[in-house]
Specification:
The protein is an all-alpha fold and about 140 residues long. Helices cover about 70% and strands about 0% of the residues.
């Protein structure tokens, strides 16, 4: 078996973050919904695929249970290591979960870019609350 590369480790870490990060955050309900920005079903699908892959692996199942029950970041690291091994060994699984993760990332990026407000231009004023004598334009 090949040694774990940094790229592979980052990929597994990102997958675990996307799938299980809501359990690590306090008040997972609304915060998680805002974090994933409309990708809730995809996150659940990703998490379910990872959990299904670990069925029968007692250590991995225990780590998953700790993440979901206690939001333990140490258990999250364990899940990342187990997932990293599975990604190396099962190429079809790796492709499938990475595609789901990419869809989640794309949705998050769309949501973040649509909220971005750029204040371009030189003379910006709020016409709702004009006070005094605002000058617009040159001199």
């Amino acid at each position: 078996m090949e040694p774990v590369t940094t790229t592979t480790a980052i990929a597994a870490a990102k997958l675990v973050e996307l799938a299980f990060n809501e359990f690590v955050k306090s008040g997972a309900g609304e915060i998680a919904k805002k974090t994933v920005g409309g990708a809730i079903d995809l996150v659940k699908n990703l998490r379910d695929k990872i959990k299904a892959k670990f069925q029968g692996n007692e250590r991995a199942e225990k780590a998953l249970a700790e993440v979901e029950k206690e939001g333990d970041s140490t258990a999250l690291d364990k899940v990342t290591k187990y997932l990293d091994l599975e990604l190396d060994e099962d190429e079809a699984f790796a492709t499938e979960v990475r595609q789901i993760a990419q869809q989640i990332i794309n949705i998050q990026n769309q949501n973040n870019s649509s909220r971005e407000y750029n204040n371009y231009g030189r003379d910006q004023i709020n016409i709702e609350t004009i006070q005094g004598n605002p000058k617009i334009g040159g001199s």
